[in-house]
Automatic annotation (TrEMBL):
It is found in: Cytoplasm. Residues 73-100 form a coiled coil. Its main location: cytoplasm. Required for dimerization of active 70S ribosomes into 100S ribosomes in stationary phase; 100S ribosomes are translationally inactive and sometimes present during exponential growth. This is Ribosome hibernation promoting factor. Residues 130-183 form the Sigma 54 modulation/S30EA ribosomal protein C-terminal domain. HAMAP family: HPF. The lineage of its organism: Bacteria, Pseudomonadati, Pseudomonadota, Alphaproteobacteria, Rhodobacterales. Pfam families: Ribosom_S30AE_C, Ribosomal_S30AE. It comes from Paracoccus yeei. The keyword Transferase does not apply. GO terms for molecular function: ribosomal small subunit binding.
Length: 191
């Protein structure tokens, strides 16, 4: 597994890097996943250290966790425990969903734009609001089943996930609703 361990305005020493590689490797191996790479970023917010970790699995799924504490090692331990909890919760589903899959999860490139949050920065043209584009990036849209999409959204800790439905190839969205349930948007099911 490839590791990328870095710090934002923090010097990450060899001892911490070795600790992260050993502990994170044990956590992933415990659930017999096949990780391809891991990114761990340490940062500081006032008096707290923050540890953000993302592990990419060979199945195409990502596991993401975050921890915060007044000590850097404790922040990593909290992050690792959260990742362990996620993997434990989804262990059976991760194995079941991918045992019949012949090929890894396919991804397609898609455009992603960040729009200005302040409406004062939006241009008015012919009485239509046109938001200012702040950033233009590329993202990947996976081809998944609905169950896999919900699991990926939960593992990544994101509020929504856009994916291509493997049954019919259409673009779908799963999202976390305000009431705590998961919503699924499938434009093909209209009518």
């Amino acid at each position: 597994m490839r590791y990328q361990i870095s710090g934002k305005q923090i010097d990450v020493g060899d001892a911490l890097s070795t600790h992260v590689k050993t502990q994170l490797g044990e956590t992933i191996d415990k659930y017999s996943q096949r990780p391809t790479d891991a990114t761990v970023i340490f940062s500081r917010n006032a008096h707290e250290f923050i540890c953000d970790a993302v592990v990419h699995l060979s199945t195409g799924l990502n596991v993401q966790a975050k921890g915060a504490s007044t000590e850097i090692y404790a922040a990593f331990e909290q992050c690792k425990e959260r990742m362990d909890k996620q993997l434990r919760r989804y262990k059976r589903r991760l194995k079941d969903h991918h045992k019949d899959r012949v090929e890894p999860v396919a991804f397609e490139a898609a455009g992603m734009y960040v729009l200005a949050a302040d409406e004062d920065e939006w241009e008015t043209q012919d009485d239509r609001l046109q938001p200012m584009i702040i950033a233009e990036m590329e993202t990947r849209v996976p081809t998944l089943s609905v169950g896999e999409a919900v699991m990926q959204m939960e593992l990544a800790g994101t509020p929504l996930l856009v994916f291509r439905n493997e049954k019919h190839g259409g673009v779908n969205v799963v999202h976390r609703r305000d009431d705590g349930n998961v919503g699924w948007i499938d434009p093909r099911n209209l009518g």
